[in-house]
């Protein structure tokens, strides 16, 4: 580990790591439930220290970790496949297409990375209880790591979440509190719970280490890509924490002078769950009115990390793109049948977006492009059945 400070993304005040940190104590006051978070904190390492110690020949990734390894849970997260997808590339007229399949994490989604680091932090703080609101995957991820490491997990989740996600949460032994209404409502209730009853809150972006946890996927892409930076990475975006985490990975690498450029980050959202896309297009933030989409994991009215997500796209010279539910379902089938990657709808939105990008020639065909595939298809079989028919026995 390297020493670090928390920096407020709005007022730039710095805070020591001493205790539990959520939002900036000043800017956080501007947060009103039902709107994006304000005063999200970011980890700033001692980059000259990393530059001194890091070597490609013998990379010590703990230098980039905000929690010491000795607190890590005994739970295998990350190290997922990164592979070339030439057949899918041919279909979409690209030459150098890669897939990072994070559905291969133990609970089936990239969310394991955030839950893992939060569990490590809980252990460091001597906290026994972890609380989260989730559309399903964060909850499942937290429940899983809590089971392995012996934490009590309390989870607020919309009762409309896909059944496989709810089943896994209960199987892992977490306490589940189903919520009428949307994820935004679950988020509000979970904050109320930790304020009154304690426990470490794992809510995405609210706890700054969720961004650091998700960052590891970016570091892995860099390492697995022979220590080179791809030209573009497509990221499915709900709350905007994954895309901020990927940004942070390449920001850290550049700040430590290990790399000298950023990949273009491409924000993929569903047509109706489009708050960050609109924010990027108009410069003015507005909640998505009715964020309903088949891609439940990216369905959110008020993305908690909207400001950082916008910055991640703008500062990498990326762009955002919307995909319809039908395009997402087609993308899911295409990803499965041309790359052998069965992804849940939110994750398949990246393939849907790439098809559109190909048609509109938004990226040059010889660029190295990475699809970040964030969740496994078996997490939502009902959605996957919408676009196919299973032959009946005669
Ligand atoms: C949570 C999630 C996303 C979106 O991540 P955000 O940080 O909310 O933007 C995308 N895909 C899957 C599978 C997820 O679980
Ligand atoms: Zn601040």
How would you sum up this structure, described in words?
- By secondary structure, this protein is α/β, with parallel strands linked by helices.
- It has three domains: 4-71, no CATH class; 82-109 and 208-387, Rossmann fold, CATH 3.40.50.1100; 111-201, Rossmann fold, CATH 3.40.50.
- It is built from 13 helices and 13 strands.
- The strands form three sheets. Strands 4-5-13-10-11-12 form a six-stranded mixed β-sheet, sandwiched between helices. It has a four-stranded parallel β-sheet with strand order 8-7-6-9, with helices on both faces. The protein has a three-stranded antiparallel β-sheet with strand order 2-1-3.
- Strand 7, helix 5 and strand 8 (175-179) form a beta-alpha-beta unit.
- It is globular and about 60 Å long.
- The relative contact order is 0.14.
- The mean pLDDT is 96.
- It binds pyridoxal-5'-phosphate (PLP) and zinc ion.
- The site of zinc ion has 8 residues, from loops.
């Amino acid at each position: 580990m390297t020493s670090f400070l928390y920096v407020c993304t709005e007022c730039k005040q710095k805070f020591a790591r001493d205790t539990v940190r959520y939002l900036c104590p000043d800017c956080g006051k501007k947060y009103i439930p039902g709107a994006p978070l304000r005063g999200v904190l970011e980890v700033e390492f001692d980059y000259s220290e990393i530059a001194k110690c890091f070597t490609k020949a013998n990379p010590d990734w703990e230098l980039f970790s905000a929690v010491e390894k000795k607190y890590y849970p005994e739970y295998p997260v990350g190290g997922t496949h990164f592979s070339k997808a030439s057949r899918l590339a041919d279909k979409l007229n690209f030459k150098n297409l890669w897939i990072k399949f994070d559905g291969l994490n133990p609970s089936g989604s990239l969310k394991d990375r955030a839950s893992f680091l939060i569990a490590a932090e809980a252990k460091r703080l001597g906290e026994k209880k972890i609380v989260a609101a989730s559309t399903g995957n964060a909850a499942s991820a937290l429940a899983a790591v809590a089971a392995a490491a012996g934490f009590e997990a309390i989870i607020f989740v919309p009762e409309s979440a896909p059944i496989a996600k709810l089943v896994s949460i209960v199987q892992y032994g977490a306490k589940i509190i189903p919520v009428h209404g949307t994820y935004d409502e679950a988020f509000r209730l979970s904050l109320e719970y930790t304020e009154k009853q304690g426990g470490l809150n794992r809510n995405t972006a609210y706890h700054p280490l969720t961004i650091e946890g998700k960052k590891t996927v970016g570091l892995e892409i860099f390492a697995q890509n022979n220590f080179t930076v791809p030209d573009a990475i497509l990221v499915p975006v709900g709350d905007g924490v994954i895309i901020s985490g990927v940004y942070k990975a390449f920001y850290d690498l550049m700040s430590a002078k290990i790399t000298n450029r950023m990949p273009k980050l491409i924000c993929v959202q569903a047509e109706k769950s489009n708050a960050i896309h609109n924010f990027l297009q108009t410069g003015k933030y507005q909640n998505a009115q009715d964020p309903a989409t088949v891609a439940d994991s990216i369905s959110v009215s008020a993305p908690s990390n909207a400001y950082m997500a916008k910055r991640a796209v703008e500062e990498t010279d990326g762009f955002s793109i919307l995909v319809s539910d039908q395009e997402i379902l087609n993308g899911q089938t295409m990803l499965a049948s041309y790359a052998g990657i069965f992804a849940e709808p939110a994750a398949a939105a990246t393939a849907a977006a790439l098809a559109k990008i190909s048609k509109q020639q938004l990226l040059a065909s010889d660029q190295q492009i990475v699809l970040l595939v964030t969740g496994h298809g078996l997490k939502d079989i009902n959605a996957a059945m919408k676009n196919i028919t299973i032959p009946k026995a005669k």
